[in-house]
Amino acid sequence: MPRDQGTIDALLDAMRVLRRHYDDRARGMGLTMSRARVISALSRIEGASQAELATELDIEAPTLKRLLDGLEADGFVTRRPMEGDARKNALFLTPRGRDSGIIAFGRQLRSDVVEGIEAEDLRRTRDTLRRIAGNIARLSGK
Questions:
Q1: What stretches of the chain adopt beta strand conformation (E)?
Q2: Highest taxon of the source (predicted)?
Q3: By CB atoms within 10 Å of each CB, which of 23, 34, 46, 58 scores lowest?
Q4: What DSSP state is assigned to residue 49?
């Protein structure tokens, strides 16, 4: 097996296991993984516009709109007119969104998945993954 194939396979395996774990926990909180990602991202950039949040999540605006509609109907997020441009809405978590547990779970998960790994190893891994992402972006013209 070529050296690069094993690396990519290991990366995909780690992503699959992480996604499954996150999805199981989100489902246990009454959320889909997609909805949980919106709540987590919004916790970092509250007050963002829908376009800004779509960019942060790297998803299409219509997809985000459907997710936000459902999250708003279920009481997790609220939309408020943006200051200076009433045509746009700023997005905020409601108390239910903040207290859903998914934000704390995400923070803890980030810590747990790197437990026991030396800081220098993490720095090298992060640098390598960023280079891989850059290579992929170049391949796809983005």
A1: 77-82, 85-93
A2: Bacteria
A3: 58
A4: B
